[in-house]
Structures are given as structure tokens and as C-alpha cells.
């Protein structure tokens, strides 16, 4: 569970730009924007600023002046799950979208312009898990990370890792680091030697009514205190807190049911 968004290279204007394939943004599509802002503002200390409007109302979550995540509003006529979605960096979102299609995935939205911020597409892998592709405009600042209230890690829960991991490796150029175990089907995907994301295969233990999904982990100062705050704010605890090799982790959901995880990282 190592943060990967320090893996950046300079633009021509001296600003940082994420290496293609790097997790670079997370975005939540919610139903009630005001209530969602209140929940995450109280939990993580976020403030909110207007963001690009490619898909309707959208705000950027800001921590000490730095954008850390986005929240949009699901159209009332679309029966889509309320969920956090990770975005992966691309130098050309149209080419990456074509690679998704050629590898058996689906592009559901875009590519389209997000005002002056860049270009995006929403896609799903062959198992059905939804993710985003983000091509930042020149000069766009990379999101802040590594402190409480910021994304720390994204992990895919799916049926099996072999074929799904191969899809992401082909699209984004990852290398694979698989766990060799009869009891655990887990693959860490690496970019230039740096862990960037994980794929966890659950087989028949994955709920059929939910299907494969991504989980975003957010750094917190104290996992147990953050869990108490989630409950106080009307959310729910789905698992933990528990100690892991990466830190103390809990899986929770906001009042609308969007899943995410909290982690107090060790070291």
C-alpha cells in the first residue's frame, strides 16, 4: 500500500506531470452534493471549490489550498452506483481509450474535455470494474498526497487476478508482482519499479450482486478516531479496524453507501 503519485516528470513549463499509468485522481459520483460535502468536509477537513462541469455539477475537494479529490452529481435518471472511482494518468486519453477497447474493456463516457483542466474518459475493465483515464492539461498541478485526508492507495476487488491484471498491464504498461499463495490471489502492479495499485481476486466470495469494484484508501491520523467520526456523521463500518503490514485499516461507507477505506500508514 505504497503511494505512487510521487512518480512524476516535468512539463515544459516546469510543473509536474504524472507518468502514464500513475493513479492521479479520485472522484465520487453522489446523489446529494450538499450532504456529501458536509460528510467529507467534517471527516477529512476538506473545503470545496467549483470544478469543471463535463458531466454536470462538480466540485473539487481542497485541503490547505491543494485539490485532493472531486465530487460530482449522478443524473437523476441514471441508475448508477454511488462510488469512488480512481483515475489513471495518460498522455493521450483517446489512445488509451482505444487500448482499453482493444483489450476487451469498455469506454462508457468520453473522451471529452473537462473545461481547461484536461481530458477524461470513464471505462470499465473486462470484469466490469469502472475506472477513469485522465489527461491533464499542460501546467496542471498534480494532486497532493501523503497526509491525512488525501488518497493513499487504490485496490481492485475482482473474481480473479490473472486476466484482469493482464488487461491493466497491457493498457498502462505495468509490471506484475504476484503473491504466491494457495490462500491468497493478489497482484501488485508496478510502474518503473514503484507499486501503484493492487488487484485482489476473491473468486466465488465476491458478491454477485455487486460485481468487481475499486476501493480508494484515504490516509488518516488515527484510524479508530476516524471510524468513530464516520459513525457519528451517519456512515457505516464495513470491516475493521484491523492492523495490517501497511498500517491500521478500516473499510467504511458514507451515508449514501459509497465504499472507501481509511488507513493510518506505518513508518
UniProtKB/TrEMBL annotation:
InterPro entries, alphabetized: Anthracycline_SecMetBiosynth, Glyas_Bleomycin-R_OHBP_Dase, Glyoxalase_6, VOC_core
Pfam families attached to this UniProt entry: Glyoxalase_6
SUPFAM superfamilies named in the record: Glyoxalase/Bleomycin resistance protein/Dihydroxybiphenyl dioxygenase (SSF54593)
Region Disordered, residue ranges: 1-21
Domain of life: Bacteria
The name this protein goes by in its record: Glyoxalase/bleomycin resistance protein/dioxygenase
Organism: Streptomyces griseorubens
All residue ranges annotated as the VOC domain in the record: 22-136, 150-265
